[in-house]
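Late entry, written up from scratch paper. The run itself happened at the end of the previous shift, but nothing got recorded in the book at the time, so transcribing now.
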Amino acid sequence: MPNPLIGVFYHWLGGLASASFYIFYRGVKKWSWETYWLVGGFFSWIIAPIGLAWLLVPDLWSTIQAAPVSTIGWAYFFGVLWGFGGLTYGLTMRYLGLGLGMAVVLGFCAAFGTLVPPLVSGQLAVIIHTHAGQTILLGVAMCLAGIGVSGMAGMSKENELSPEEKAATIKEFAFVKGMLVATFSGVMSACFSYGLQAGKPIEALAKASLLSHGGSDLWQNLPVLVVVLWGGFTTNFIWCVILNLKNRSGHEYLNLRPSAVGEVSMAEGVMLSAAAEENSVRNSAASPVESGAPPLIPNYIFSALAGVCWYLQFFFYSMGVTKMGKYDFSSWTLHMASIIIFGTLWGIAFHEWKGTSTRTHILIGLGLAVLIGSTIVVGYGNYLGATH
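Output as recorded:
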């Protein structure tokens, strides 16, 4: 039963999870990025998706196997492409900096992830001729504007840094190269949305199974997540193993010998974790700190907590989609806006904007206000669609 108000709430929970998961990695000590990212990834992309789907969806494996091979293939393929989007996000930060890079990547990600699926299906031509659809598209435009304002706040912060801080932040600024990489990263990151659309036949089978067993259709998207995240796991697994070999950090998993490679600091800026799976990539070159054996058990615990928290973003996202009604394509906009909202709030809580100018603070507040407003407008548009 559609209930856009509840749907928006679920998307907010998903955004909060995405904006918060990287905090757990702060507890990881003396592991290089590729090590803790892959350990957390097992929980993010394999253990949590399969575990929760197995608990909540009857006949999980039978449902997935009953889907057409092409459906599984496309959902997996788009998951692989989404993984490439995450890996190239780090290059965007390298060439454009956090403020401008974040705005460009997430702007493309929000726009392509929201508008391409209904455009390809032919639904967009119908949407623009309805009052509900026009309201939703207004909310999408507001979201893009809010992302732009948030990016301006990040750029303003960067402009207020000292020359030494700027050199440390954007050593290799290259606008043209950065824009090309950012465009690629944004479009590839939007592929997660395409993977969910490609998995619609799996969703339909899961819904039928749930209803036949007296369950709730709230969980109908969980099997689709299992397949899409297999694709994302593939990309990240290969890259992390390559880094383990290159950096000789594979011994860290079992603490076979003391490591001189230490923890990597968390990305700072407008968003603590907006698309944080991408943010962490720029830290893949670990920096040496004090030698000594890593605390193995705590590292696994913190990585596992981070991984499960990361997965919860899409767990709640999948629940929110079921409540948005016939215009559920707008869920991607709600997800992106929620990530930025809570990521910005975490940045404020961690004093990442301390010492910046009044102009920057105004841009932060304005960006938050527009983004929050966009979720309300999108939610209202879906409400109109559900009641008319």
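Residues 258-290 have pLDDT under 50 and may be disordered.
(Scratch paper discarded after transcription.)
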